[in-house]
Write a structure and sequence with these properties.
Helix 1 runs antiparallel to helix 2 and helix 2 runs antiparallel to helix 3. The protein is mainly alpha-helical. Helix content is 80%, strand content 0%.
Length: 85
């Protein structure tokens, strides 16, 4: 039987890429993926490790992309708004 939490975390990881600034979904994907891994390890009847690992990777990748985007484009965006000179 697949872990429902692992599937939920995988879906959250995918959905975080579909919406701009889905960082809250990426964080939840990482949290739920970690909880699902612990749940799968403790209960031998559950499967879905790949979903949980994928969710953690997708959530982390999305956060990394957003941080990179902010570092690269952040100063230019603030100049356009007039906050920085």
């Amino acid at each position: 039987m697949k872990s429902k939490l692992a599937i939920l975390s995988f879906v959250l990881g995918l959905v975080s890429f579909l919406q701009l600034f889905g960082i809250e979904k990426a964080i939840l994907a990482i949290i739920f993926g970690t909880i699902a891994l612990k749940e799968i390890v403790s209960d031998q009847k559950l499967t879905g490790k790949n979903y949980a690992y994928s969710a953690i990777i997708l959530g982390s990748l999305y956060i990394l992309v957003i941080i990179t985007f902010i570092i690269i484009k952040g100063p230019d965006m603030l100049k356009n708004v007039g906050i920085m000179r």
